[in-house]
Amino acid sequence: MSQEKIWLSSPHMGGTERNFVTEAFDTNWVAPLGPNVTGFEKDLESYQGENVHVAALSSGTAAIHLALIQAGVGPGDEVICQSFTFCGTTNPVQYLGATPIMVDSEVETWNMCPNALKEAVEDRISKGKKPKAILAVHLYGMPYKIDEIHAFAKAHNIPVIEDSAEALGSTYKGRKCGTFGEYGILSFNGNKIITTSGGGAMVCHSKEVKDKTIFLATQARDNAPHYQHSEVGYNYRLSNICAGIGRGQMQVLDKHIALRQDMNKFYQDLFQDIDGVTVQKEQSDDIVSNHWLSAIIVDPSKTGGISREDLRLALEADNIESRPLWKPMHLQPLCEDFPYYGNKVCETLFEKGLCLPSGSNLTDNDRSRIKNSILKVFRK
Ligand SMILES: *Cc1c(COP(=O)(O)O)cnc(C)c1O
Predict the structure, then answer these.
(1) Span 143-153, mean pLDDT?
(2) Domain contains 6
(3) Residue range of the domain that includes 204
(4) Which of 127, 188, 309, 362 could link 366 by a cystine bridge, Cβ 3.0 to 4.6 Å?
(5) 35 lies in the same domain as 50
(6) Per mean pLDDT, which range of 34-43, 300-309, 324-333, 371-380 is the poorest?
(7) Which stretches within the chain are classed as H helix?
(8) Where, per the database record, does this protein carry N6-(pyridoxal phosphate)lysine (predicted)?
(9) Closest Cα to atom 5 of ligand 1
(10) 217 with 268, same domain?
């Protein structure tokens, strides 16, 4: 008997997306500009609040690339990066011929450790290289230590690029993630909390930065009747078709966040009585995670030897997808030669951590299959 696959996080349409896409066809706006692009940007600006400006782009990775360029990053420069992340965070640093300086996580939010950040920046400065930017990540939707990281960055006058690709809708002291950095990054890839099939956005605090982002994203065309260019540009604008999906998704965003938060509660309850397994959760009342993915830490010394890999394989046998936490970038062959600062907190997280199915479209039947599959492992 083969049961349908339960995915970690799959696209979840609200129903009106198709109307916006149909309208784009009916009005022949099948291009990387048009009413859906502008409308989607407006929706995001009002959702994020804080009078931000938003430029819709073809991906979150593209948004990070354009943020780094505007922070002045070029060949030979150094950029502080949270090591515990997806490669989309750090790849754009390498596109520019700059060096990512890898910084460890802390145990509360699993994100950039303020102490390791301090150590890294002071050491780089002492070597004659002040980092050009700090790339911090709200991993799995959990806000990083915003007060500490931003106060430190401000004291050293280093811009923060806030990778909020996984944290649309998460808040810190009531304010939306993605609005704290000089540049905030969003992603609408297929597995993110909302999707445009593929897409991303730059959140910024002035019309100048938004305009410059759109300029760079549309081949840096100067103002002239012919095509005139005085700097390198990119083809990074979001399609009006994709933006139509985004407009529909915005109508269900908060509902879908609540459903992901319910999935996290489901796992908190499920693992409450299982020794040696902890579910990631907010460690302070100041923070609200969108719980894009629910993640657990499995400590074999307390589970009677059961590891996260035992659990992953048991779920896989029942056609349920789960995935180890992000492998720290400083352990990736691509980045292992770059400097690293910290105490291997993220290495332990990678070794013991597992992401569980977290989609807003999971059913009661899915939840009972997940529960049975997990309990089978721990009740042996
Ligand atoms: C998804 C993701 C990105 C990149 O976004 P894309 O839209 O896939 O290019 C960057 N950083 C993190 C943390 C992500 O999860």
Answers:
(1) 98
(2) no
(3) 17-252
(4) 362
(5) yes
(6) 371-380
(7) 17-26, 35-48, 60-70, 87-95, 114-126, 146-155, 207-217, 240-250, 253-271, 308-317, 345-352, 364-378
(8) 192
(9) 60
(10) no
